[in-house]
Specification:
The protein is an all-alpha fold and 77 residues long. It has helices spanning 2-9, 26-31, 46-50, 54-70. The mean pLDDT is 92.
């Protein structure tokens, strides 16, 4: 992942990507040098919002958080 190369070469950057982040790869970004991730469309699927399917959105959030939790606690560099 190129984020790892960028964070290694420029450790003063605090990378917080939004593009390419999905529900199932949040941990991959965090394990490769990012300090956070941003995801809106994958989390708040327009159909789920339109149908007011809050449980579906909650399920999306839980899926995204699995990767975050697996990446371990944040350690300040």
């Amino acid at each position: 992942m190129w984020m790892k190369a960028v964070s290694a070469a420029l450790p003063m950057l605090r990378l917080n990507p939004t593009s390419g982040v999905g529900l199932e790869n949040t941990g991959d970004f965090l394990n490769n040098g990012c300090v956070g991730v941003g995801l809106v469309a994958p989390l708040f699927d327009p159909i789920l919002v339109q149908e007011e399917d809050w449980e579906g959105i909650k399920s999306n959030a839980k899926l995204a958080m699995r990767g975050v939790k697996k990446s371990g606690p944040y350690v300040e560099k």
